[in-house]
Design a protein that fits this description.
single chain; 16 strands; alpha+beta; 299 residues; 16% helix
Length: 299
């Protein structure tokens, strides 16, 4: 049984004919075993502000309308309904780990209107142990190639877009973190640089690997960071990130940090090149705001 208390904050303390009157609720939904929506209409003086106690997880109340809605536990039925309406893509923000993303590499503060790629990375990276098949950490959509001339939410709060290198790093980090990938740009109008980023099959394969592990930030040396993600074939995807604004950084990954040894084949997933066989470690000079991504193959 669902126990819910609905409250209405009346604009005046006395009871008179102008006070809000709660009318019988309207219950909508495809019964049985489907999500539901209560619409409680009111009459009388405005504004009316609704409150609720005892709502189970997955239900939300709109304080201005008195509408309770929710889909928790009925996702499959919802998906069937959406498909019947001609919708071919659903992004379900059940496990969003951060606030909405902005089209920027780094902004001054992190709040409801200002959250850049780097700030979201720092919020999502520590949650690696909570990610896996069926419960992915969602750091919000990709902003790769979003037109900065458009007046959209992602371009607010001082967000002025990113360089191609920064967008490439954004894609790299989201794929390493096993994040749901949703392109936020206009895919009808992509230049070749944006297309190359979003359609890099080797990077996407890291994201979609069936082992389902999120990369962990195994080293943080200030501006130089190392992310490592184990893959289902025994190989590793490793990201070498340089957060410095102006200087190249020499960043390396030691085999002992991954619990491996011996000689290993290395492939650069952005250059699409085999780099050769390396023993004990791999290192690279990483440009400002670049994330070099390599795959370290099993013996």
């Amino acid at each position: 049984m669902l126990g819910v208390f609905l409250g209405c904050n009346r604009p005046d303390s006395g009871i008179n004919q102008n006070s809000p009157v709660i009318n019988p609720p309207l219950v909508n939904g495809n019964y049985p075993k489907t999500p539901f929506l209560f619409a409680i209409s009111t009459e009388g003086k405005r504004p009316v502000k609704w409150s609720a106690e005892g709502l189970p997880r997955g239900l939300d109340l709109d304080a201005s309308t008195g509408i309770i809605s929710g889909s928790y536990g009925y996702e499959e039925q919802d998906a069937i309904d959406f498909a019947s309406w001609g919708i071919d893509l659903l992004k379900y923000d059940y496990w969003r780990t951060t606030l909405d993303i902005r089209n920027a590499w780094l902004l001054d503060v992190y709040n409801a209107g200002s959250n850049s790629i780097m700030q979201i990375l720092d919020m999502n990276a520590p949650l690696a142990d909570y990610a896996g098949p069926g419960h992915w950490n969602d750091p919000d959509m990709l902003v790769v190639g979003i037109d900065t001339s458009k007046t959209t939410v992602v371009n607010r709060a001082g967000a002025k877009g990113c360089t191609i290198e920064e967008y490439r790093s954004h894609m790299s980090l989201w794929c390493l973190m096993a994040a749901p990938l949703l392109a936020g740009n206009d895919i009808r109008n992509m230049n070749e640089n944006v297309r190359e980023i979003l359609m890099n099959s080797e990077i996407i394969a890291v994201n979609q690997d069936p082992l389902g592990k999120q990369a962990k930030r195994i080293r943080d040396d200030g501006d130089a960071e190392v992310f490592a993600k184990p893959l289902s074939d025994g190989s590793w995807a490793v990201g070498l990130l340089n957060r410095n604004d102006s200087e190249n950084k020499n960043i390396r990954i030691d085999w002992k940090e991954l619990g491996i040894n011996g000689e290993r084949q290395i492939r650069d997933l952005w250059k699409h090149e085999d780099l050769g066989r390396f023993s004990d470690y791999f290192g690279s000079s990483v440009a400002p705001h670049q994330c070099v991504v390599v795959r370290i193959f099993n013996k």
